[in-house]
UniProtKB/TrEMBL annotation:
Its EC number is 2.7.9.1. Pfam families: PEP-utilizers (PF00391), PPDK_N (PF01326). It comes from Amycolatopsis acididurans. Residues 372-440 form the PEP-utilising enzyme mobile domain. Residues 58-238, 254-306 form the Pyruvate phosphate dikinase AMP/ATP-binding domain. The keyword Transferase applies. It comes from the Bacteria. This is Pyruvate, phosphate dikinase. GO terms for molecular function: pyruvate, phosphate dikinase activity. Keywords: Pyruvate, Transferase. The keyword Transferase applies.
Length: 485
């Protein structure tokens, strides 16, 4: 067990701490507002599987030690009725696997503690809402209802996170990206902060630059009264970050300042999860942002021009697959004008693809295995849908925003994606062939013809010029895509 304390550890290693705890440690070193935490390194997960899925003997004692360290910082005690401490238990692989493994929030609550939370906070709905959220999430993740003993809850949650390393969705994700199966996940235990604690509270996701369009301006979504899982699950339609600026301008300014610090520190566009508890900002995680092909090229060019990257580093920020997407054919304005529009939503990952609409991940997987092009259209997506998302040519959802699970994973996979088309809009399209043009967020009837590359994107032209100049060296992994057009 490794404590993550104020000032951070100088010897932090991402492969040891996992990505989530590594980012927590780095933010603590920078003096940013982060709830206290401790982490079981990835090696403990490896121990768990090497011993036939038996929890290592040292874990129980180290859980007590780690919780005591958090108690000393926040002045609350785990399982104590008078001043209760609640924690989150989160996974964290060395390489980010967004949404592929499990998390449990609000752990440590039971009916008596829930009642005390309401009395102490002055918010009568707070305790019951927090308890409801915990029971629902714990039951889904662990596979059984929680006991009222916080320590039993904690031990069960840690085992569940270990188990999620080898879940079907995590295994499928690693197979798709060529990641090793024996690396294991870290388990981070962190003090809870509450976005559902009355007015002046909420949760959100901020990107230091737009991960969809590639614009240099910060981009994010904000959900008053929510917790982090509400935003990424796609079950809710969040507000834009401008709403946070209007309601809590000081918090908004602090958040943007932190984003600038983190972008300089990590040398890349940042995806930052944050919570505001009664007007106080807390940062929960920062990682390199998953981005669309368009954004990958534009960010690389912009950061090179700003002096933040060398040409070599800029070329390494874009994959051959991403460049191929940008150089692929697209819908002409004339074809789009003459097509029948079926639905419209928010762009999550630009691109164009056609296929038959299916409404479940299993059906998408089955039909794709038969060689058919499919478009996965669902109310929202969750981590259990990853096999269908991998199989689909495009992904569209009825609800959720540009920081939802569907949006984040589609950008990682390079799948055209449109989100937030409206409840009940997509289900009637099942079995219909459509064309998804997620450069503008539109779904059209039929398989529409595509035209060649227009060459109107200045950043793309600049980037392709760099590829040609360095074809025998830094740009070797990209030259095939440029030669194909």
């Amino acid at each position: 067990m490794i404590l993550l304390e104020a000032g951070g550890r100088q010897d932090a290693d991402r492969t040891v701490l996992g990505g989530k705890a590594f980012s927590i440690n780095r933010m603590l070193r920078l003096g940013l507002p982060v709830p206290p935490a401790f982490v079981f390194p990835t090696s403990v997960c490896v121990e768990y599987y090497d011993s036939g899925k038996s929890v290592p003997a040292h874990v129980a004692g180290e859980l007590r030690e780690g919780i005591a360290s958090i108690e000393a910082v926040v002045g609350r005690r785990f399982g104590d009725l008078e001043a209760p401490l609640l924690v989150s238990v989160r996974s964290g692989a060395a390489r980010s696997m967004p949404g592929m493994m499990d998390t449990v929030l609000n752990l440590g609550v039971n009916p008596e503690i829930a009642a005390m939370l309401s009395r102490q906070s002055g918010d009568q709905a707070f305790g019951a809402d927090t308890h409801r959220r915990f029971v629902q999430q714990f039951t889904h993740v662990v596979g059984k209802k929680p006991t009222d003993d916080p320590w039993e809850q904690l031990e069960d949650a840690v085992v569940a996170v270990f188990e999620s390393w080898n879940s079907p969705r995590a295994t499928a994700y690693r197979r798709h990206h060529g990641l090793p199966d024996d690396a294991g996940t870290a388990v981070t235990v962190q003090a809870m902060v509450f976005g559902n604690l009355g007015s002046g509270s909420g949760t959100g996701v901020l990107f230091s630059r737009n991960p969809v369009t590639g614009d240099a301006e910060p981009y994010g979504e904000w959900l008053p009264g929510g917790q982090g899982e509400d935003v990424v699950s796609g079950r809710f339609d969040p507000l834009s970050l401008s709403d946070l600026a209007d309601s809590m301008p000081a918090v908004h300014d602090e958040l943007l300042a932190a984003a600038r610090v983190l972008e300089r520190e990590f040398g890349d566009v940042q995806d930052i999860e944050f919570t505001v508890e009664r007007g106080r900002l807390w940062l929960l995680q920062a990682r390199s942002a998953k981005r669309s092909a368009t954004a990958a090229v534009r960010h690389a060019v912009a950061m090179r021009q700003e002096g933040l990257l060398t040409v070599e580093e800029a070329l390494e920020r874009v994959t051959a697959e991403q460049l191929g997407v940008l150089l692929a054919p697209h819908l002409s304005p004339e074809v789009r004008a003459g097509a029948t529009l079926l639905a419209k939503g928010e762009v999550a990952c630009p691109g164009v693809a056609s296929g038959v609409v299916v409404t479940s991940a299993d059906e998408a997987d089955e039909l794709a295995a038969e060689g058919k092009d499919v478009v996965l259209a669902t109310p929202t997506t969750n981590p259990d849908d990853v096999h269908g998302m991998l199989a689909a040519r495009a992904i569209v959802t009825e609800i959720g925003g540009a920081t939802s699970h569907a949006a984040v994973v589609s950008r990682e996979l390079g799948r055209p994606c449109v989100v937030g088309c409206g409840e009940g809009i997509l289900t009637p399209l099942a079995g219909r062939v459509v064309t998804v043009d997620s450069t503008v967020g539109e779904i059209f009837d039929g398989a529409l013809p595509l035209t060649g590359v227009s060459g109107e994107d200045a950043a793309l032209e600049t980037f392709c010029g760099w590829v040609r100049q360095h074809a025998e060296g830094w740009g070797a992994h990209l030259i095939a895509a440029v030669k194909s057009v």
